[in-house]
Write a structure and sequence with these properties.
Layout (H helix, E strand, L loop, with lengths): L1 H19 L8 H5 L5 H9 L4 H7 L1 E4 L14 H10 L4 E3 L4 H14 L7 E4 L12 H5 L4 H17 L4 E2 L23 H16 L12 E5 L18 H17 L4 E4 L3 E2 L2 E2 L4 H11 L5 E3 L7 H5 L5 H11 L4 E2 L3 H11 L5 H17 L12 H7 L3 H14 L1 E5 L12 E5 L1 H4 L20 H6 L5 E5 L5 E2 L10 E2 L6 H9 L3 E7 L20 H11 L3 E6 L7 H6 L2 E4 L7 H9 L63 E11 L3 E10 L5 E11 L10 E10 L4 E8 L1 H4 L1 E2 L5 E2 L4 E7 L6 E6 L1
Parallel strand pairs: 1-2, 1-10, 2-3, 3-4, 5-6, 6-9, 12-13, 12-16, 16-17, 17-18
Antiparallel strand pairs: 7-8, 11-18, 14-15, 19-20, 20-23, 21-22, 21-26, 24-25, 26-27
Helix pairs in contact: 1-5, 3-15, 4-14, 5-6, 8-9, 8-16, 8-17, 9-10, 13-14, 17-23, 20-21
The structure holds beta-D-glucopyranose (BGC).
Amino acid sequence: MKVLKLNIVLFGVFLSLISCSNSNSTLSISSKVSSIKDIDGKVNELLGRMTLEEKVGQMNQYVGFWDLTGPAPKSGDAAEKYEHLRKGYVGSMLNVRGVENVRGVQKIAVEESRLGIPLIIGFDVIHGYETISPIPLAESASWDLEAIRKSSEVAAEEAAAAGINWTFAPMVDITRDARWGRVMEGAGEDPYLGSKIAKARVLGFQGTDLSAHTTIAACAKHFAGYGFSESGREYNTVDVGTSTLNNMIFPPFQATVEAGVRTFMNAFNVLNGIPATGNKYLQRDVLKGKWGFDGFVVTDWGSIDEMTSHGLAKDGKEAAKIAANAGSDMDMESHLYVKELSALVREGKVKASFIDDAVKRILKVKFELGLFENPYKYCDETREKEVIGQQSFHDAVLDVAKKSIVLLKNDNQLLPLKKQGQKIALIGALAADKNSPLGNWRIAAKDNSAVSVLEGMQAYKENKLVYAKGADVNVGYTAFTAQVHINTTDKSEFPQAIQAARSADVVVMVLGEIGYQSGEGRSRTKLGLPGVQQELLEAVYKVNKNIVLVLNNGRPLVLNWHQQHLPAIVEAWQLGTQSGNAIAQVLYGDYNPSGKLPMSFPRAVGQAPIYYNYKNTGRPTGAPGVFWSHYEDEKNSPLYPFGYGLSYTSFEYSNLQVKVVSGNKVNISVTLKNSGQKTGKEVVQLYIRDHFASVTRPVKELKGFELVTLEPSESKEISFILTEEELGFYDNDGQFIFEKGDFTIFVGGDSNANLQAQITL
Ligand code: BGC
């Protein structure tokens, strides 16, 4: 926290330097290059007039002295940054936000530097700017690509109104290990679903016209392998084979390239011995070579410098050389490009053509954003006031929040709750918490701006609602950078909670993790409810078993006791600004839950990483004796599988028809019936298994899904088509191949889908 305070003071100094700056020195570049029509022509013309130092400057990104989203920089102060801005030695700033502040820094770059090249302003708009949507993992549980696209569109429009023109999102890392805190930021464990969601998010942020003042450039991150850190420990080593890399890790990244994503961020981790930032294979060979990506790559925070700690570079200069040669175009917060790169080029250690290539990519995106035409196009105070927090944004985040909720258990139709004549005890600190629902990575949100569950439920006035906290979750975890981790041990308020529960018809307990217990730097070795929450739950259970457990969390938890004892469990994640309204509407049945898990929920931490699309092993089944792939003390399967989620109605699958037509095309149809009493939505999921291949294939792979809404008793035929694109895979040389052979097709409501048919191609 000390660091943060110091930097707020420095930011003040910085702003005062800005306001003293002379504003009418040089002309904006726009007037100098406007005669050339196409962007590449403009970029080349400008490049031709830049000195080496100015080119390197474009490759330098500084943090504004405000929000620190990484360790404090080792070098540089406000005066130096100001000087560098004036000299044109800064291409981008991150974590400067709000029109006044963005205008301030932009003005120095545009009006005081020799060439007046505008800055691109980056910010982590991960799940909303000020109006916060569900954490990305939660949103992914909606499987609703349009709602997800819309949520990114809203985030872009709101951030753009605050001066931002570039988000460091979407994070498209495949994540299988709930111990890793950043699972909250991605789309879960599946590359097919992950690719669709990655694309939807890019389209949401960037729209169809990047030069509009409502759209911002997106950034696919973290390239690559970050989600596979050993033992789920943050920033840890990654060692994966080519099959996993090509078939699991790469596809969502490639999908963003196909969707036209304008930037990539590399990763903190080493991948097979080479840090991602210095990894030529990833950046030059695959991304810019094979996939033809024509945007630019920004490093992750300080990751050039970190290559010395990794043991790849002996000092900062060597690290800068390796990063530039490997294709890292912009240095986020290592300050090493600006310091070392010009000399490295003069010494012949980095090719001048690499610098030109990087700068062209960066300038191109700035042109596409329209920043040269009008560097202040994102800086409109009136728009900022009118747009931020507008009602339509709240409507959109409420919509996706409802769709993100997953019903895990509902015995005897305890849910939905009756709307009248009930006495409901609402228990748990998270029930009244207005901050935790915002989750992590919500830097621009106002603290305590979410609707709590308590507030959401108070809108249903015809029941008697009694709230008792029971116990806090944690003390000290109040900020993005806070390091203390103290789960409370205080049980002094248990008696009030037990008392409230004793006389209630139904007990709603809201338990889980506070907003900062997942996210960057928040790996955990235990996946139970933190603090004394489990004790509280069991104490309440002793007096009233009619418990609806509402979970607020940023990762899969271990819920064996809960599944065994409790009648109803609702996975409500961290749902953003409208959280409490979304949860109340689901609990009362005004929205029939339709979410499906994007990650498997383990039975024990020891199963992690656990995922549905595993390989079969040579000894997959339970012959008597010990010589098969299993645990002594736990099942192999997860508690809740990928794709799982219930509804207040029920669905029946029947009549699976699979027909092979010419050209290795497979037509599939299935009948879905709403066999329950309520209108509901089902995510129909299609999986395949390729039984024999030159590289072994997973036991199941998602290859299609469709959201279907049906009235009670209504039936519908759902069709899918599989082609070589879905039936093929990447071999160990990274080539996409299709091999004929035996396949099983599965259709159902989760990854245990067992309605199946065999085909031979
Ligand atoms: C994170 C990135 C983020 C960057 C800038 C890093 O610590 O890994 O995902 O975009 O900070 O805030």
